[in-house]
Amino acid sequence: MDMLKLTDVTISYKNVPTVKNFNLDMKSGQIVSLVGESGSGKTTVIRAILGLLPGGGKVTGGQILFEGTDLLSYTQNQWRKLRGSDISMIFQDSGAMMNPTKKIGHIFTEYILTHEKISKKEAWDKGTRMLERMRLPSADHIMDSYSFQLSGGMRQRVGIAMGMTYQPKLLLADEPTSALDVTTQAQIVRQMVQLRDNYHTGILMVTHNLGVAAYMSDYLIVMKNGKIEDQGTREYILNSSVNEYTKKLLKAVPSLGGERYV
Amino acid sequence: MSEKSEVILEAKHVTKKFPAADGRFLLANNNVNLKMYKGKTLGLVGESGCGKSTFMKLLVSLDTPTEGQILYRGTDITKLKGEKLRQHRKHIQMVFQDPASSFHPKMKIRDIVCEPLLNFGKIRKSEKTEVCRKLLEMVELPGEYMDRYPHSLSGGQRQRVAIARALALEPEIIILDEATAALDVSVQKTIIELITKLQREKNITIGFICHDIALVQSVAHQVAVMYLGNVVEEIPGHELNTKAVHPYTKALMGSIFDIHMDYSRPIESIESEPPSPLDLPKGCPFQERCGYRMDVCKKEAPRMAEIAPGHSAACHLLNLTAR
Amino acid sequence: MKKKNVFLQNKTFVIFSVLAALIILTAIFAPLVTGGADPVKGVLADALLPPSKEHIFGTDKMGRDIFTRVIYGARVSLSSTFAVVALILIVGTITGITAGYFGGWVDAVIMRIADMMLAFPGLVLALAVAGIMGASIKNAIIAIVAVSWTKYARLARSLVLRIRNCDYVSAAVVTGSKTSHILFRYMLPNALPTLLVTAATDIGSMMLELAAMSFLGFGALPPAPEWGYMLNEGRACMQTAPWMMIFPGLAIFVVVVVFNMLGDSIRDILDPRDE
Question: For the domain A4-101+146-252, what is the CATH code?
Fold first, then answer.
């Protein structure tokens, strides 16, 4: 059965459709990337799946099914239960999502306590163990630090660790590496692929970086102006696609040993 | 590489330190020596915290180095002050990273682009319209845009306006500070094409500061790689891919997700974090993350040594192979 | 611009600007309003008369018509208040922008002086200054300005610092702008709207401070018709001739409320749009 199925989805902001006729069939354990430039609608799609569309945004057509259940019929409470347990999300800047006046341990504990009724100490320990399982160095030190004391890369890894605590079936990632240095980016990408390998987590990722998307994904969807422009496996998109836009995008990406201008 | 070209701008032993708490200091630039040649592009690449932005500010005289000189055609511009400094600014202009904040939000395009010329009395107010039209034409924008405000243009269009503004004074050198980082990849390509075309037409020297090593090697004649305030390798752009030797340069290249890469190859990534620039260890700045670290690396900082014409690197490994 | 909408959508602003205009016009056309009566000369025989048809606010202990004095008092109060506000705005803006833009020791010196001023309770210091220099409206104005400019300096400085390191200011430097050009074209226009709004909301409190100074005898001198001073005069006769205090007091109250509300409504209009 499909884990995530979007059928003919239309999303509008203040009654103006920004995403039209979006279709997606995703099986568990798959890594799918939505790629496109700004204004393509890719972030809108991913936020709609978690019911996190910013002000004025609504799904005005189509269906979003997660393991057969209609997500669009969910109440706020049901959404809250879903987030973090079966579906989790990581953002471009996880650090910005964290309260800078609280320690990581505190934030993580609060997060755990919204999902489970255990004691604070147990929650703290669970958080620490999660960081260790994600192979973050000095987990105790991290729990005891504030978000601004950590590097961008470390914050992202903490964000991923938090998102993975309840071993979600689906991880939504909104530009997870765009704000990072390339050397850190490589770490995060490796970690995310391991999540799929070790936990069979499906990943739906939004990115403008075609290279990252191609490396990680089984399947890519190219979006333009709110519509799906092209889609296919990595091999197809990189080598066999006849779509003009896809070819234009590929040509524009700088490549070592590729086209030079001087 | 550039025996024919003259050296327009030269940084000599440039060091910049920022005071921090407890009497410590942040070493943003450490003994940087770089040359820029007439009509050629010098690419400066590195990750966040490597000091490239600080160095760029020194080049455009927005700040002064703690030690060292920056020579423009032989004159040390770090010693210029007041009106002399202002007059010098005609020769070096800049394009900023964020098209959203590079312009006064309440100025029209015409005023933005002509402001540099009015600053030096090179045109009269009555000539603004005509001059603006010519400059916009140079960056392939329609003349009607001059009555618009920057926020009504797209990111790519705004960067074109920024380039037009940088060209207004006909400078010898233009510094592009991550000028395409905020743009979509297809827009980036058109901006790069515009810049390289203008370089060919006007023989402009360009300083291209960037964190994307694949991009920088495609636009620069010469590339300098920076790490924690140090230049660790300098190499001609077309040789970067094949002949780079410094472990950090190779790590940068290895971390890229290139669309032409071999997907069966596991991605290299350097584990561990860079040290804080406040508490730099003695010896090579890259020692903690280097896979080839030797004892000497912890004790002595390697110096830049020439490997081939136009190619030098600072690494103790080179001394080994030399023997 | 969108002036029509501004007026239609902001009834508070319209109402209170009309009222403020009325007050100002009354002050300007005081002779007309009072029918040519003399605010300074009085008929002793008519001293301390309660309000009547002839003297609608009554008379004071020198036999002067209080209504006339209240109306002429508007002139003194308004002109001195505007002088104070204008001066603190100018002094504060110049010092604040200078401190913010140039930084370094200039900033340190200016801000330490401002800090020093803040260490004293405003009115007490104003009284001390006026006491040393002698009582007069002019000295009262100087005293209050000396104490109150610091708020504007701090505000101007923070507004300058907010944009000081923005790319477009750096761009102005790199493209060869003279410092004066940057100060007038970039720093000042950025700071001015907020400073003007603050000044508008301060009119009321400055008026009160001036009245307080005069009430305490450190401001206006007799026989000038100044509301604060009139309050002081009326204090002695509070039991027997309460109208001597009521009407100047009401005048202060009305004018301060009108200008406060006007200032608030200006702030409401400008601030939401302000970035």
Answer: 3.40.50.300
Which letter, b or e, does each residue of A50-78 get, where b requires 16 or more Cβ atoms within 10 Å of its Cβ?
A: bbebeeebebebbebbbeeeebeebeeee
Place of tokens 């739906």: A204
Shortest distance between the Cα of A167 and any Cα of chain B, in A, equals: 24
Residue extents of the structural domains in chain C: 3-37+61-273
Q: Are strands B67-72 and A16-26 parallel, antiparallel or unpaired?
A: unpaired
DSSP chain C: --HHHHHHH-HHHHHHHHHHHHHHHHHHTHHHHHTT--SS---GGGTTPPS-SSSTT-B-TT--BHHHHHHHHHHHHHHHHHHHHHHHHHHHHHHHHHHHHH-HHHHHHHHHHHHHHHHS-HHHHHHHHHHHH-SSHHHHHHHHHHHHHHHHHHHHHHHHHHHHTSHHHHHHHHTT--HHHHIIIIIHHHHHHHHHHHHHHHHHHHHHHHHHHHHTTSS--TTS--HHHHHHHHHHTTTT-THHHHHHHHHHHHHHHHHHHHHHHHHHHHHHH--
User: Which tokens hold the place of B316?
Assistant: 């103790």
Distance from CA of A82 to the nearest CA of B (A): 33
Strand partners, A228: A223
Measured at the alpha carbon of residue C102, what is the angle toward residues C101 and C107, in degrees to the nearest 5? 100
Task: Say if CB B226 and CB B172 are below 8 A apart.
Answer: no
Look at strands B67-72 and B7-19 and give their pairing: antiparallel
Which segments of chain B have a pLDDT < 50? Answer: 1-2, 323
The tens digit of pLDDT for each residue in B262-318 reads 777 666 667 666 777 777 788 898 888 888 888 888 888 899 999 999 999 999 988
Q: How confident is the model at residue C13 (pLDDT cuts 50, 70, 90)?
A: confident
Mean pLDDT on C168-176: 95
Sequence-distant (6+) residues with CB within 8 A of B203 are B38, B39
- Cα B240 to the center of its chain, rounded Å: 17
pLDDT value at residue B229: 92
Which residues have C-beta within 8 Å of that of residue A138, sequence separation ≥ 6? none
Quick one: chain B helix, strand, coil %, rounded to 5?
Answer: 40, 25, 40
Handedness of CA C114, C118, C122, C125 (dihedral sign): negative
Neighbouring C-beta atoms of residue C189, cutoff 10 Å: 11
- Min Cα distance A143 → chain B (Å) is 17
| Nearest CA among C99, C190, C105, C202 for reference residue C153 | C99
Query: With pLDDT > 70 as the criterion, what percentage of chain C qualifies?
Result: 95
**CATH 1.10.3720.10 holds for C3-37+61-273:** yes
Selecting from C168, C174, C189 the residue whose C-beta is nearest the C-beta of B101 gives C168
Q: Which residues of chain A make contact with B155, given a CB cutoff of 8 A?
A: 38
Q: What ipTM does the predicted assembly reach?
A: 0.90
- Residues β-bridged to residue A89: A172
Does any CB of chain C come closer than 8 Å to the CB of residue B145? Answer: no
Cβ of C104 under 8 Å from any chain B Cβ? Answer: no
- Please list the ranges in chain A whose pLDDT falls under 70: 1
- Domains of chain A by residue range: 4-101+146-252
- DSSP states of A135-173: T-SSHHHHHTSBGGGS-HHHHHHHHHHHHHTT--SEEEE
For the beta carbon of residue B124, count every other beta carbon within 10 angstroms: 10
Whether C126 has a pLDDT exceeding 80, the answer reads: no
DSSP state of B266: P
Flag whether A touches C (3+ CB pairs, 8 A cutoff): no
Q: Which two tokens stand for residue B14?
A: 């440039």
Q: What is the pLDDT of residue B268?
A: 66
Fold of B7-322: Rossmann fold (3.40.50)
- Residue B19: is the preceding peptide bond cis (ω within 30°)? no
